[in-house]
Design goal:
Distance between the termini of chain A: 39 Å
Radius of gyration of chain A: 13 Å
Number of strands of chain B: 11
Helix content of chain B: under 10%
Number of domains of chain A: 1
Largest interface: A-B, 28 and 32 residues
Number of helices of chain A: 0
Strand content of chain B: over 45%
Structural class of chain B: mainly beta
Strand content of chain A: over 45%
Order of helices and strands of chain A: EEEEEEEEEEE
Largest sheet of chain B: 7 strands, mixed
Order of helices and strands of chain B: EEEEEEEEEEE
Helix content of chain A: under 10%
Number of helices of chain B: 0
CATH superfamily of chain A: Immunoglobulins
CATH architecture of chain A: Sandwich
Oligomer: heterodimer
Largest sheet of chain A: 6 strands, mixed
Number of strands of chain A: 11
Structural class of chain A: mainly beta
CATH class of chain A: Mainly Beta
Amino acid sequence: TQLLEQSPQFLSIQEGENLTVYCNSSSVFSSLQWYRQEPGEGPVLLVTVVTGGEVKKLKRLTFQFGDARKDSSLHITAAQPGDTGLYLCAGAVGGADGLTFGKGTHLIIQP
Amino acid sequence: EAQVTQNPRYLITVTGKKLTVTCSQNMNHEYMSWYRQDPGLGLRQIYYSMNVEVTDKGDVPEGYKVSRKEKRNFPLILESPSPNQTSLYFCASSLGGTNPGVGPTYGYTFGSGTRLTVV
């Protein structure tokens, strides 16, 4: 089992601030994904990164895949209350393996 | 609408009474998977399937069975449920990898979840 560690576990900040959450592993992943989950619902895919060093932007969200494909970060600029949720990273080793999920970062953006 | 449909959304049952949670996807996806989500433990994979008649164990398969007789359906079976199987269950599907051997790089589409309580 490949372990993905996310940090911080909990984060509460004011609207308008910037933040970064991290996803780290000792394993090399063929791809890494970020999901956002709201209470009582299934996770929703935000982005998939495949190439080491890759950077993807989704409006105010910036995702980066580490050069060695062992870690990733999610940066949110000017956070808004609608960004509140559980952010999950998930890695795929490839072949027949499914996805391994981190435990997530609980993010609260206060108005 | 492209979606993964799970039923039921909520289920309370008694120990030992066999149950099936259904999962169906309308996207012609090859990969399908079952996860359970527990506080402090996150999402853990139970079983996954690469295609029809191809299934494999995930990280926590004990006490569960699956089958993949058709591409669109992937039911989760609990032959003799126990209280430690009380959890929030998610079915997910994926188109698959962009290249052979690179896993579900397209990402998973999740169902809305089934909250199971075993008393």
